[in-house]
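Hi L.,

You mentioned the student needs an example of a multi-chain input paired with its predicted structure. This one should do, with 600 residues in total across all chains.
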Amino acid sequence: MEKMLMKGNEAVGAAAIKAGCKYFFGYPITPQNELPEYMSRELPKNGGTYLQAESEIGAINMVFGAAGAGARVMTSSSSPGIALKQEGISYLCGAELPCVIVNMSRSGPGLGGIQPAQGDYFQATRGGGNGDYYTPVYAPASIQETVDLVQEAFDVADTYRTPVIILGDGMIGQMMESVEFKDIQKRRLPQKDWALKEHVEKGSKKLINSLYIKPEEMEPHLQKIFGKYDVIKKEEVRYEKFNCEGADVVAVAYGTVSRIVRNAIKKLEEDGIKLGLIRPITLWPFPFEAFDEISPETKAFLSVEMSMGQMIDDVKIANAGRLPVEFYGRPGGIVPKPIEVVDKVKEILGGAK
Amino acid sequence: MSIVFERTRGMVDMPLHYCPGCTHGIIHRLVAESLVELGLMDDAVCVSSVGCSVFTYNYFDCDAYQASHGRAAAVATGSKRVLKDRTVFTYQGDGDLAAIGTAETVHAAARGENVTIIYVNNAIYGMTGGQMAPTTLVGQKATTSPNGRSAELQGYPIRVCEMLSTLDGTAFAERVSVHNPANVRKAKKAIKKAFEVQTAKQGFSIVEILSTCSTNWGLNPTDSLKWLEDNMIPYYPLGNFKTPEEN
Ligand SMILES: Cc1ncc(C[n+]2csc(CCOP(=O)(O)OP(=O)(O)O)c2C)c(N)n1
Ligand code: SF4
Ligand SMILES: [Mg+2]
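Structure written out for the whole complex:
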């Protein structure tokens, strides 16, 4: 297929439609508006339905209704709106409903700002709503990868009957890059025999539910869900490891920030310093295994984030006390420059090498 | 011997968990009988809410969702948009619908979602133990209005049918009661009509049913029926507020 130039938000929509998404429930918020706008334009042409909800709470509960009826369904928002969706996400997890939720995140807390930020890492990777649950979280670093991961996300959602989150940021949503809509390898997906159908099968009452009032039923329900998480942790972890062999410092960065770290790697090369990069593609499950092998030359890990430091907690767990774990972050909507990362690496190494 | 009364086949054969004398049970039966008589029972989709009626999904013999508190109309919207030919209805209490779920309800009506809302107004938060609801009458005692609801402090109860009938998307809105046999019969007629409006794809339909809560009103079941008649009906007048024009 030919390559075309697309804005991130629109590319998400195009990829979702290609993946067979037929329902989209939206609500306006910057910086993701091009996605619901695209869906309102394109989904009806592809036999689908776009509906603007009264709020993000309304939208996520419409997702609950449509997902329970077996539809491929998506919703999107940005940080404050994703906060409102948390109750719904918790219910979706409890009722084991598949769907894809896109967060083109901005800064917070509160109304925060509309520039790119990564302050929603905890919210995305630690459940975010009430109760015991996780959702797979994909963090693309380019528009091409966004397109590929959106398609993958729908399959993962259906395979495990779980909501899946695509965590981008204002940069991913707004920038334009050339993309190609490749046919991703199709998974063999389970039948949705649990879902409500257009035509009722007699004698098989379907129930979409997260209520288990008896503790002796709730406990096995959770154990079953966590059994799926064990499989997801084994099968679905994705990451990229770059330049780590013999690196002086290994940076850990996802999404937009990983691109900045790549530029810093080039600049540091000129000074004879080797910076490696571990780029988690799934934030949950976090790629702990990427940290298993550390070169003897490596003196520290450096978590680089557009936040006050959230992923660093997972980096510390992965590091398990072996090396110092350093942090460089620009929160509040400021995108760090490569030179800032360069300077931080040099500082860690005790000045210019 | 001929059968003069039997369980409706629209309900599963199991004991209801409601308090003795609670009119939720009557309303369940009316909804199930209506669906069965209209030939819609197998096709029906029940969206249960959070309140005393949280387990309706067990009782109605049809597919069901259990929605989060107040969001039933949004869940019904998502479901009906996919399952266009099925009869989707919610079953919600007054706290669920008229407080936490106000936005979802008003906008489902405004969009003219082709779903039916069974709205059980007992002027109290039943399940959580009798706190003041958005529908609690001025002067009515509740655990969070121990001296009676004060209009000055807590404002006024909401008349949902009147409010929703101002919206163009609402096709059918009627308030009924189940405090005596004559009204039970009228209630069933309204419920049937609401489902017919949905079958005819005419838009949003709601039946508000005035209901008792002996346990939290602190009255016996008979006195509760009387209290409903004497106190609720004057504030919540029975009748049809909107119905599609016959053509
Ligand atoms: C988000 C949330 N808030 C509060 C509750 C607690 N809660 C359970 S039932 C209920 C009120 C139900 O009252 P109503 O809708 O009037 O139904 P009734 O029990 O009177 O039939 C509340 C507040 C909850 N389950 N979820
Ligand atoms: S608490 Fe009230 S509404 Fe709930 S079952 Fe008992 S009587 Fe009915
Ligand atoms: Mg109530």
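You could point out the following to them. The mean pLDDT of chain A is 96. Residues B 50-53, 69, 93-96, 120, 122, 124-128, 133 surround thiamine diphosphate (ligand 1) (CB under 6 Å).

Best wishes,
N.
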